[in-house]
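Input (structure):
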């Protein structure tokens, strides 16, 4: 199906040309320059005909620790990741980020948005690891805004008075499974559900409509 490039999409109108993409990373610590990036997952979002935002597609990649990287035992204990387990099907940083970024750029094109804006829970960590890995791999086309984000910590604190992801998700009436937590794939999905819940709640409370048919 061809895209009418003369007519902005509802998503391109909703966030001033930016497209929210939900990201979660699992790492070997908190230092983006020294600690390993072990998993990255991304969820793209879409707007339906009534202006309701919902999850579109998801991608997740397990990553081989970069050469010389640090991995704190406590971090690995929390995530349960064995970085060198053969069944992880892990790939190098450059390949992993290349595939995730390609996935995001495809959605950017479909939604006629100029740039992705990261959505995450404590996005300072996620964005710092994505940017550091991009620099290590000499990736020139990082689709994310370099510093602006939508942080669900702030969103959930405002909407539900909760800042811990599991507690915020439960407060929003969304199912949470502790056994699946601390994997990039699961945490990204739950962060995306939380973000959509809060954005849609705001829309209902204000009566704002974000339709592809809104006039300029």
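Output (sequence):
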């Amino acid at each position: 199906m061809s895209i009418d490039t003369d007519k902005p999409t509802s998503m391109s109108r909703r966030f001033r040309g930016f497209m929210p993409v939900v990201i979660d990373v699992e790492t070997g610590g908190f230092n983006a320059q020294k600690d390993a990036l072990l998993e990255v997952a991304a969820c793209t979002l879409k707007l339906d005909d009534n202006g309701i935002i919902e999850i579109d597609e998801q991608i997740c990649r397990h990553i081989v620790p970069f050469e010389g990287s640090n991995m704190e035992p406590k971090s690995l204990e929390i995530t349960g990741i064995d970085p060198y387990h053969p069944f992880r099907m892990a790939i190098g940083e450059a390949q992993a980020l290349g595939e995730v970024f390609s996935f995001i750029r495809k959605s950017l094109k479909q939604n006629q948005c100029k740039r992705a804006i990261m959505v995450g829970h404590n996005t300072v960590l996620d964005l710092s690891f994505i940017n550091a890995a991009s620099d290590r791999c000499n990736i020139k086309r990082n689709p994310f805004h370099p510093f602006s984000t939508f942080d669900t910590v702030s969103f959930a604190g405002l909407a539900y008075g909760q800042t811990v992801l599991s507690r915020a998700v439960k407060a929003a009436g969304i199912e949470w499974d502790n056994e699946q937590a601390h994997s990039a794939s699961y945490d990204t999905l739950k962060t995306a559900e939380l973000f959509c819940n809060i954005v849609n709640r705001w829309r209902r409370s204000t009566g704002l409509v974000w339709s592809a048919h809104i006039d300029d």
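Notes: Confidence is low (pLDDT under 50) at residues 1-6, 212-216. The two ends are 25 Å apart (CA to CA).
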